[in-house]
Model the fold of this input.
Amino acid sequence: MAYIDDPETQRANLTYIKTSMREPLLSRDCELDLARRWRNEGDEGALHQLVRSYTRLVVATASRFRNYGLPIGDLVQEGNVGLMQAAARFEPDREVRFSTYAAWWIRSAMQDFILRNWSIVRTGTTAAQKSLFFNLRRLRAQIQAVSTDRAMTPDARQWIASELKVDVSDVETMELRLSGVDQSLNVPLTENGDDEWQDFLADERPSPETVVIGMRDSATRSRWLAEALGELSPREQTIIRARRLREDGATLEELGQTLGVSKERVRQLESRALSKLKQSIERRVAQSSDLFNS
Done:
């Protein structure tokens, strides 16, 4: 369903569209001259004239995407961004019409905007997925025009997948996405009831009791570990803290340089310290697997 603006916005959009359509069309030589003046001399007046003359192209492109449920004014604004990008990148020496070059940038800017805002769920990121999103409806309409089946058949999905060079599973997924719409969880279940959709969603977070038990167990394990560390020698504590109790643990070579011993000696000290820690913890708890990896 297309987005419907409020009356004031509609009037503003209509005024902008009429203004755009009154801008004179440029000849090939004129637009190339304006482009060269902007590119070579930094003439902003030439840039403004070039851009204004093709805002009608922005309006025409926005009308093609009006059925995606987004405000036409936003589409026009995004198209204008694409138009200005085209003007900044256009190379007049290539002898290509600016309108041809700008059309690609305008369409690309609008398509990116639609993909970002059409749904709260990200729709597509690859070029193939974008092509599928913007062409599925057109190809589906072509099939339905020559078929009595209103629903998509497996053969029809296979044909679309071949046309757009995507997997059939991608076609099925996109078909489901396009057939549904985002729905607020605050929508009432019935017209006269107070219950909302979110009232029936299961809370998968841990219960308060589980959280408290976890916090208590974590504090106990931390105390046991601190007591076990206190039974190690200072050098063993340094190795364990640097190697096992830091997110970015030190290497054996780094600790060897710090302690003035070889890497192999550091490895031996670490192994002995871990064995001591394990024995100390086992005296306090029946199972030490929660603190040490096997």
